[in-house]
């Protein structure tokens, strides 16, 4: 199975990368850009055939190693092989 | 509208972050981890109501500012307000 994690800065947390990308886009002529958030996209391939187990594992991985809960929000998705 | 970009290292491109995360997960007991890819997740909020236009803009943004085509693969998705 493949676990896809989508991580972004929590609301209210400074996101200097997002600000830089927004300014860059506007300077390139994309004037309708309102806001940009820059986060992480992580794919974890696991030897696991049970989807329920993969979901539990994904939550544990997020908590222990993937997500900094204080400054980041995340979602994940399980893709079966 | 919201444009969500999912960016990851192209196949064959070195991904030291991915390797580090994989090793860390295994050392934490997630022994069934086969491979990890670390990429970027970028949200771009635009003042645009026409979905077709947003799609065209997303492709232009990717090409000009968001994605390094030589080493990165990407997908995007448009979310309507």
TrEMBL record, chains A, B:
GO MF term (any one): phosphoribosylformylglycinamidine synthase activity
Family that this chain belongs to: Belongs to the PurS family.
The protein's name in its UniProt record: Phosphoribosylformylglycinamidine synthase subunit PurS
Leading EC class: ligase
Keyword Nucleotide-binding in annotation: yes
Cytoplasm found in the keyword field: yes
Record's function text: Part of the phosphoribosylformylglycinamidine synthase complex involved in the purines biosynthetic pathway. Catalyzes the ATP-dependent conversion of formylglycinamide ribonucleotide (FGAR) and glutamine to yield formylglycinamidine ribonucleotide (FGAM) and glutamate. The FGAM synthase complex is composed of three subunits. PurQ produces an ammonia molecule by converting glutamine to glutamate. PurL transfers the ammonia molecule to FGAR to form FGAM in an ATP-dependent manner.
Organism: Hydrogenothermus marinus
Known catalytic reactions: N(2)-formyl-N(1)-(5-phospho-beta-D-ribosyl)glycinamide + L-glutamine + ATP + H2O = 2-formamido-N(1)-(5-O-phospho-beta-D-ribosyl)acetamidine + L-glutamate + ADP + phosphate + H(+)
GO cellular component: cytoplasm
Subunit and interaction comment: Part of the FGAM synthase complex composed of 1 PurL, 1 PurQ and 2 PurS subunits.
Keyword field: ATP-binding, Cytoplasm, Ligase, Nucleotide-binding, Purine biosynthesis
Membrane-spanning parts: none
Record pathway: Purine metabolism; IMP biosynthesis via de novo pathway; 5-amino-1-(5-phospho-D-ribosyl)imidazole from N(2)-formyl-N(1)-(5-phospho-D-ribosyl)glycinamide: step 1/2
Compartment(s) where it occurs, according to its Swiss-Prot or TrEMBL record: Cytoplasm
